[in-house]
Amino acid sequence: QVLLVESGGGLVLPGDSLRLSCACSERTFYAMAWFRQAPGKEREFVAAISRRGISTYYADSVKGRFTISRDNAKNTVSLQMNSLKPGDTAVYYCAAGAGIYYASTDYYTHGKYDYWGQGTQVTVSS
Predict the structure, then answer these.
(1) What angle do CA 44, 81, 94 make, to 5 degrees?
(2) Is the CB of residue 21 less than 8 Å from the CB of residue 10?
């Protein structure tokens, strides 16, 4: 059983930056992603990274502002969030997909991920 633990959430002002981290309980080379869920809305894709970190994928709403990265030696995945907006307010979840390989569409698909963290709250408000 792979355990994922997110950290780094908090309350920030519009325009601020925040860095989320996800610690994995064991060394894996799974595809990793961040999803988010705002109150009253469905969970949505934010960003994903391939097994070796060669390919990255972003939702249009965060492209150019968020950067996903991974350190396989430390079993961690990070999400650097810049120029935050109130619309970015949500619980952010880290996810790992054991069966995601080359099909780019898989990275965007919630159901393709096998393991999920408990989430970390990000609130952007003035």
Answers:
(1) 45
(2) no
